[in-house]
Amino acid sequence: MLHRRTVGDVMTKEVVTLRPHTPVREVAALLDANDIAAAPVVDDDGAPVGMVSASDVLRHETGMPDPQGQEGNDEHAWGKARARTAGLLMSSPVFTARADWTVPRAARELRRRHVKQLPVVGDNGLLTGIVSRSDLLDTFIRSDAEIRGEVEQEILGRILGLGEGTVAIEVRDGDVTLRGHVPEPRLIPVVVGLCQGVDGVVAVDAHLAAAG
């Protein structure tokens, strides 16, 4: 079976975390020092209980609910602007992902929740990593050589058992062109479908025929 990358494959495992009592000044310093846009807040057991983003810190620093001064009548937003600790500044409840989620599922969840990062938790609810939009995008931004290698080794070789050189593969800017022969006509759509499922493939142009 073709391996599809999961959240566990692309997530960051060494996560910068905050505690509910972490002072806001320290939060700002940690985000800046680690060049990250957000960090999860975890409890004593290591379970995520909220998220603090750079925009949350900016709201606090400006003393306004948001940098443009909108949502001025939102008491919760004003409370975050006056917060002194990560626990008061964080957004909660926190939305989480699982390591076995596929990349498309995680992307849909980010979009549905209107967030840029998701803490990743295990079966016990404890933090195991964090996945961001950029992590997911990197999955699809692969070199032509990487794509060609996966098509050749995984699909044509391991899955279909075709001999080396049976099908010529050309990859240019994610477009895959296949030329050659396969043992049976019914394998042609199978080859095309499997290639289309490879991360980073934009399109497949197959010039294949049945051998014999």
UniProtKB/TrEMBL annotation:
Q: Where are the transmembrane segments?
A: none
Entry keyword set: CBS domain
CDD domains named among the record's database cross-references: CBS_pair_BON_assoc
Domain CBS: from-to ranges: 11-68, 90-146
Write down the Pfam families for this protein, in alphabetical order.
BON, CBS
Q: Does the keyword Ligase apply?
A: no
PROSITE patterns per UniProt: BON, CBS
> Domain named BON: which ranges?
143-212
- Database matches in InterPro entries: BON_dom, CBS_dom, CBS_dom_sf, Diverse_CBS-Domain, UCP036990_CBS_BON
What name does the UniProt record give this protein? Answer: CBS domain-containing protein
